[in-house]
Design a protein that fits this description.
The protein has eleven helices and 16 strands. It is α/β, with parallel strands linked by helices and 346 residues long. It has one domain: L-arginine/glycine Amidinotransferase, Chain A (5-stranded Propeller), CATH 3.75.10. It is globular and about 50 Å long. The model has no long low-confidence stretch (mean pLDDT 96).
C-alpha cells in the first residue's frame, strides 16, 4: 500500500482487450437475492467460468464453506479461492487492475457501499478487493471515492467513460462534483479524458452502470446500445447517450466511431414482474475470445455478428447463462473481472 496516486507512479488501467493473466469471479451466495433460483444462478456462473477457462485461467472466489460445492460445479479447469463474501458481482467489488510501462501490476481498491446502500451487509464485499490484491502480493492503492467497476470503461490510451447518474449519485459520492471525480479517475486510472454519458437503463439497480450502455473496442471506437423503437421506455436515454458519444472527443482529440448494437426485447422477471435489465454490450473479452450474452431473442444473431466484427481475430461465444444472471440484476461483464498480464505493459 502507498499514499501516492497510481498515475504519479506511471500506472494506468489497461483496456479489456489487452492480454490477461486470469479472470476473477465470485460464487453466488446471497440467498435473499436469488431465492429459489440460487442453484440455477450457480449453474449459470459455472457455465460462464468454464467458457472463459477455454481461453484463460479462471479463479472463482467462494465463501469457505462453499468452496467444495463451487469446485464440483465449476470443474477442474477453474480454481476456487476461499474468501468471505456478501454477494457475487466481482466486477463491482474486485480491484481495478493497473499496469505500468515496466510490466508491473497493481490495483485500485475503491470504496464500496452496496450500490448506494441498496444491499446490506456489504462489509465483506468492501474488503474483497484488498483481500485479492493481498493474496496476489500486488500493491493496493486506496481510492477516496465510492465506485463499482461496472461504472467505468477505459480504452487503455487515456480515455474513460462513465455516467452522471452513477458517479454523481449522492448516495455514493455526496458533495463531489464532476471535476473532482474526473480528477480522482485521472489520478487512479491514468486517464486524461472522461466522457460522461447521462443515464442508464430503466430498472437498473446499479444506477446506470456504463457496462450496460457502451464500451470501447479499441481506441477511438465504441459499441453502444441503441433502441430502434420510439415506444421503448429507454429510447430517449439511449438516444441521448449516442448523441453524447458522437459529439465527444477522446484523450487524443479523435472523434469516436460509434457502432450501434440493438437491445434485446423488453422482458420481465416472472417472480415479481420487475423489468429485466438486459444488454448485449455487457460481454467479457477474454484472451482470444469474446463471451456475449444470448437471451433466445430475435436480436441475438445480429448483436453477435456486430460484436464479432468489432473484435476480428477473436472467437465469439454466445452464452445463454446470461438469461439467468440478469435475474439477479447483472450480466456477464458484471460477474467477471480481468487481471492483466504483467507482460501487457512491457
Amino acid at each position: 500500500m502507498t499514499d501516492k496516486a497510481p498515475a504519479d507512479l506511471g500506472f494506468r488501467m489497461p483496456a479489456e482487450w489487452e492480454p490477461h493473466a486470469r479472470c476473477w469471479m465470485a460464487w453466488p451466495c446471497r440467498e435473499e437475492l436469488w431465492g429459489e433460483r440460487l442453484d440455477e444462478a450457480r449453474a449459470a456462473y459455472a457455465d460462464v467460468a468454464r467458457a472463459i477457462a477455454d481461453f484463460e485461467p479462471v479463479t472463482m472466489v467462494a465463501r469457505p464453506e462453499q468452496v467444495a460445492g463451487a469446485s464440483l460445479r465449476c470443474g477442474s479447469g477453474v480454481s476456487v479461492l476461499p474468501l468471505d463474501l456478501d454477494d457475487s458481482w466481482m466486477r463491482d467489488t474486485g480491484p481495478s487492475f493497473l499496469v505500468d510501462e515496466a510490466g508491473a501490476v497493481a490495483g485500485v481498491d475503491w470504496r464500496f457501499n452496496g450500490w448506494g446502500g441498496k444491499y446490506r451487509p456489504f462489509d465483506k464485499d468492501a474488503a474483497a478487493a484488498g483481500a485479492i490484491l493481498d493474496h496476489l502480493g500486488l500493491p493496493a492503492f486506496h481510492a477516496p471515492i465510492v465506485l463499482e467497476g461496472g461504472a467505468i470503461h477505459v480504452d487503455g490510451a487515456g480515455t474513460a467513460m462513465t455516467t452522471e447518474q452513477c458517479l454523481l449519485d449522492p448516495s455514493r459520492n455526496p458533495g463531489l462534483d464532476r471535476a473532482e471525480i474526473e480528477d480522482c479517475l485521472r489520478r487512479h486510472l491514468g486517464v486524461r479524458k472522461t466522457i460522461w454519458l447521462g443515464r442508464g437503463l430503466e430498472g437498473d439497480e446499479t444506477d446506470g452502470h456504463v457496462d450496460n450502455l457502451a464500451c470501447f473496442v479499441r481506441p477511438g471506437t465504441v459499441l453502444a446500445l441503441a433502441a430502434g423503437d420510439s415506444d421503448d421506455p429507454d429510447f430517449e436515454v439511449l438516444a441521448d447517450n449516442l448523441a453524447r458519444l458522437r459529439a465527444a472527443r477522446d484523450a487524443n482529440g479523435r472523434e469516436l466511431e460509434v457502432i450501434e448494437v440493438p437491445r434485446p426485447r423488453l422482458a420481465h422477471r416472472a417472480a415479481d414482474g420487475a423489468r429485466l435489465v438486459r444488454s448485449y454490450v455487457n460481454f467479457y473479452v477474454a484472451n482470444g475470445g469474446v463471451l456475449v450474452p444470448a437471451f433466445g431473442d430475435d436480436n441475438d444473431r445480429q448483436a453477435l455478428e456486430i460484436i464479432a466484427a468489432a473484435f476480428p481475430g477473436r472467437r465469439t461465444v454466445p452464452l445463454t447463462a446470461a438469461a439467468t444472471i440478469v435475474e439477479g440484476g447483472g450480466g456477464i461483464h458484471c460477474v467477471t473481472l480481468q487481471q492483466p498480464a504483467a507482460a501487457a505493459a512491457a
